[in-house]
TrEMBL record:
<dbReference type="GO" id="GO:0016874">
    <property type="term" value="F:ligase activity"/>
</dbReference>
<dbReference type="InterPro" id="IPR012340">
    <property type="entry name" value="NA-bd_OB-fold"/>
</dbReference>
<dbReference type="InterPro" id="IPR000977">
    <property type="entry name" value="DNA_ligase_ATP-dep"/>
</dbReference>
<dbReference type="Pfam" id="PF01068">
    <property type="entry name" value="DNA_ligase_A_M"/>
</dbReference>
<keyword id="KW-0132">Cell division</keyword>
<keyword id="KW-0131">Cell cycle</keyword>
<keyword id="KW-0227">DNA damage</keyword>
<dbReference type="InterPro" id="IPR036599">
    <property type="entry name" value="DNA_ligase_N_sf"/>
</dbReference>
<keyword id="KW-0479">Metal-binding</keyword>
<comment type="similarity">
    <text>Belongs to the ATP-dependent DNA ligase family.</text>
</comment>
<feature type="domain" description="ATP-dependent DNA ligase family profile">
    <location>
        <begin position="300"/>
        <end position="426"/>
    </location>
</feature>
<keyword id="KW-0234">DNA repair</keyword>
<keyword id="KW-0235">DNA replication</keyword>
<dbReference type="Pfam" id="PF04679">
    <property type="entry name" value="DNA_ligase_A_C"/>
</dbReference>
<dbReference type="InterPro" id="IPR012308">
    <property type="entry name" value="DNA_ligase_ATP-dep_N"/>
</dbReference>
<dbReference type="InterPro" id="IPR012310">
    <property type="entry name" value="DNA_ligase_ATP-dep_cent"/>
</dbReference>
<keyword id="KW-0436">Ligase</keyword>
Length: 532
């Protein structure tokens, strides 16, 4: 019997992943992964989870397709690798430094792949090159961890969000530790709560009870922690940017009270207080310090204060505390007279609520902001979730799509990689492979010379194929595209096409958005006009 103390065979993990990919039934995916995880000793759970997510614990290994293609040895006939072997090889790849490191990396890679069977090679190559780093499995894996450890999935999800680490959560769950004791700790960044969207502010307000209608500032998300007086700041993807935001560090250092965790948006403002274009804020995060305007910050949430975690407290309580702590650095919109809108049956009727929300929306746009975020005042802070309690409303339709391929430009764009093939997520695999993407359109509109230059340099490094006309890309780059609408079309497999798609920005660097969070075909289908 293969006891759970030995290192599990890589082949078991690979076949569980294949089984999960081959079925469309969520319960079957979960069962396949849970069966494999149940065989993993707790200490090795982070390795197994990292492999299944395509995000090994060693981080990005920086192995390109060309490197892999050059070293691909003939596969082993029988499976012999255990996941600890893979972990050791990945560590060797990640830590090779200095003179001769390229040769040592090649040797480590050749040795690992030479010991793998053909199916294992395919799996490892997808992990190594980042092709699997779509996070497509994260949701089912969370359920699978719950099933393998006999812990309710809500408890696993919460622990994963608050610890920011699914592998470590799996370890604790499989070791029988009490996951409810994992809570927010100042100093450990948490996945930010996200918003769903609605086409109009009236619809957003109608969907919720008492709400706060807040300006949606077009800057960068910033999570700020203060522990024993030391302030650290993190981006949306939890990268630390403390050094880039000294004025915010100073501001937060002066707030009253003890340890704090604040959530907010930072942006650059004109002398007259109008929001600067998003790119100005990003150039600051990119490290160009000279000639920058100072950053301003607006906080819209507090997750820890007065020695306790507030993630389970209703937004109304958090707002009250927030106002007392941050004073004028509060997000505009929230808490200003008229912006807090009571629910049906309370002070205002629904027409009044809608009118008040519309006024705040108009004021937000007039001040140069992106729109509003309408938030349920009774809701807790759902770390890492895109739930119904926060609803963003913007005047145009924008979608975050994944770049599947890029065409070589011609004419004025000769020499550049230009036209983008845009994919929407298709998590159920209704239009192709499970967990994949479906192409919904192409565009080169909105691409500035800077963006063309960037993508011409960058895309070859994530290319997975080249037919001379276009490069196929690992589906990991998210681009925000504005459209006028969606129309029915037989041109693409999803049965829809985008109207007037233009690139707004890439979701990279400090503003990175993982492909697993890109918009889905269903998000786009909702924008189809009614049949008639
Ligand atoms: N008052 C606010 N409350 C919450 N988020 C805000 C607010 N103002 C600006 N934001 C920004 O808007 C984002 C909320 O939208 P969402 O959660 O969908 O993130 P996103 O996927 O980055 O969306 P988008 O591309 O629309 O900014 C937050 O991540 C934050 O950066």
């Amino acid at each position: 019997m293969s006891g759970p103390q030995a290192s599990p065979a890589l082949s078991a993990l690979v076949s569980a992943a294949a089984e999960a990919a081959a079925t469309r039934a969520r319960t079957a995916k979960i069962a396949a992964l849970a069966a494999a995880l149940a065989q993993v000793p707790p200490a090795q759970a982070p390795i197994a989870v990292g492999l299944l997510l395509g995000s090994p614990v060693q981080g990005r290994l920086g192995i390109g397709w060309r490197t892999v293609a050059n070293v691909r040895p003939s596969p082993a006939d029988t499976a012999s690798l255990c996941i600890e072997d893979v972990d050791e090889a990945f560590t060797a790849l990640a830590t090779a430094r200095g003179a001769g490191s390229a040769a040592r990396r090649t040797a480590a890679l050749t040795d690992l792949l030479g010991r793998a069977t053909a199916t294992e090679q395919d799996f490892l190559v997808r992990v190594l090159t980042g092709e699997m780093r779509t996070g497509a499995l994260a949701g089912v894996l969370t359920d699978a961890i719950g099933q393998a450890a006999a812990v309710p999935v809500a408890v696993v999800r919460r622990a994963a969000m608050l610890s920011g680490d699914l592998g470590e959560t799996a370890r604790a769950a499989l070791a029988g530790e009490d996951l409810t004791r994992i809570t927010l700790t100042p100093g450990v960044p948490v996945q930010p709560m996200l918003a769903s969207s609605a086409p109009s502010v009236e619809e957003a307000v109608a969907a919720l009870g008492p709400v706060s209608v807040e300006y949606k500032l077009d800057g960068a998300r910033l999570q700020v922690h203060r522990v024993d007086g030391v302030v650290r700041a993190y981006t949306r993807s939890l990268a630390e940017v403390t050094d880039r935001v000294p004025e915010i560090v100073e501001l937060v250092g002066g707030f009253p009270g003890g340890d704090l965790v604040l959530d907010g948006e930072t942006l650059t403002l004109d002398a007259d207080g109008r929001a600067r274009p998003f790119q100005d804020t990003m150039s600051r995060f990119g490290g160009r310090a000279t000639g920058d305007r100072p950053l301003s910050v607006s906080f819209f949430d507090v997750l820890y204060a007065q020695d306790r975690s507030l993630v389970d407290a209703p937004l109304s309580d958090r707002h009250e505390l927030l106002q007392a702590i941050v004073g004028p650095a509060l997000i505009p919109g929230a808490l200003i007279p008229g912006a807090l809108i009571p629910g049906d049956g309370a002070v205002a009727d629904s027409a009044e609520r809608a009118r008040a929300a519309r006024d705040t929306f108009d004021a937000a746009l007039a001040a140069g902001h992106e729109g509003v975020v309408v938030k349920a005042l009774g809701a807790p802070y759902a770390a890492g979730r895109r739930g119904a309690d926060w609803i963003k409303v913007k005047p145009v339709y924008t979608f975050d799509l994944v770049v599947l391929a890029v065409e070589r430009g011609s004419g004025r764009r000769a020499g550049w990689l230009s036209n983008l093939h845009l994919g929407a997520r298709d998590p159920q695999g209704r239009f192709g492979d499970a967990g994949g993407f479906v192409m919904v359109g192409k565009t080169f509109k909105g691409l500035t010379d800077d963006l063309l230059r960037w993508q011409t340099e960058y895309f070859p490094t994530i290319a997975t194929g080249d037919d001379g006309y276009s490069l196929a890309l690992a589906p990991e780059t998210v681009v925000e595209v504005a459209i006028d609408g969606v129309q029915r079309s037989s041109r693409y497999p999803g049965g829809l096409a985008l109207r007037f798609a233009r690139v707004k920005r890439y979701r990279i660097g400090a503003d990175v958005k993982p492909a697993a969070q890109a918009d889905t075909v269903d998000d786009l289908l909702q924008r189809l006009p009614p049949r008639g």
